[in-house]
């Protein structure tokens, strides 16, 4: 069974989970502990990050990202919590859930992107600053902010369709983000566009525990292999 703890997944903690999380912060950072207490009081989620090399199998690595300060600096608090103290895990937000939280200049274009994604039956969700603003009501977005999208194609045709939509809508929206392949390894979609024309080109793959370079051809083979195994078999 696939783990629910994928990068960018949303994780709500129990009271004991927040206590454990606070213990992972350095003692000298009392202000950081205050941030965690505020997160707990508002029942805001943490976000799954890349697993630390020494993280045990029964724990999960999480993060809390604060809104940028007046200078644009972003404080991120790395946490580690036992899985038994996790209250709830959810996938990143659907595009539809964040549309009410964007500026008017983005709203119509983002609604059209959502419509096109739905028409094609694609899996596209939102993470990063826009998702955090929608979840917490705090001011994460700046004039220079991107819209970070997670695109999960289940076939090479979906990959082609999704990349076409991202490139089309990037003409009106500051789109960024990742393609997530069936093993939950992710590639920047902009990097993929630059490299996908030759199977021997390599792209930077972000996995749950590390990063690696992989051939475009190998990633397409993985996608096609997954698609074949998802097809229903005819009864004998």
Q: What is the topological layout?
A:
Elements: E1 10-13, H1 15-23, H2 30-42, E2 46-48, E3 59-65, E4 76-82, E5 86-90, E6 93-94, H3 95-98, H4 104-120, E7 124-127, H5 128-136, E8 147-151, H6 156-169, E9 175-180, E10 186-188, H7 189-195, E11 202-206, E12 211-215, H8 216-230
Parallel strand pairs: 8-9
Antiparallel strand pairs: 1-2, 1-5, 2-3, 3-4, 6-7, 7-8, 9-10, 11-12
- The number of helical elements comes to 8
Low-pLDDT segments = 232-236
Distance between the termini: 27 Å
| Overall mean pLDDT | 92
Number of domains as seen in the coordinates: 2
Q: What letter string, H or E per element, gives the SSE order?
A: EHHEEEEEHHEHEHEEHEEH
Give a description of the structure.
This protein has 236 residues and is an alpha+beta fold. It has two domains: 10-90, no CATH class; 93-230, no CATH class. The chain has eight helices and twelve strands. The strands form three sheets. A five-stranded antiparallel β-sheet has the order 4-3-2-1-5. A five-stranded mixed β-sheet has the order 6-7-8-9-10. A hairpin with a 4-residue loop joins strand 11 (202-206) and strand 12. Helix 1 (15-23) runs antiparallel to helix 2 (30-42). The model is unreliable at 232-236 (pLDDT under 50).
Task: Give the key terms.
disordered C terminus; 37% helix; globular; 5-stranded antiparallel beta sheet; alpha+beta; 236 residues; 8 helices; 12 strands; 2 domains
In short:
This is Malonate decarboxylase holo-[acyl-carrier-protein] synthase. This protein is α+β, with helices and mostly antiparallel strands and 236 residues long. It has helices at residues 15-23, 30-42, 95-98, 104-120, 128-136, 156-169, 189-195, 216-230; strands at residues 10-13, 46-48, 59-65, 76-82, 86-90, 93-94, 124-127, 147-151, 175-180, 186-188, 202-206, 211-215.
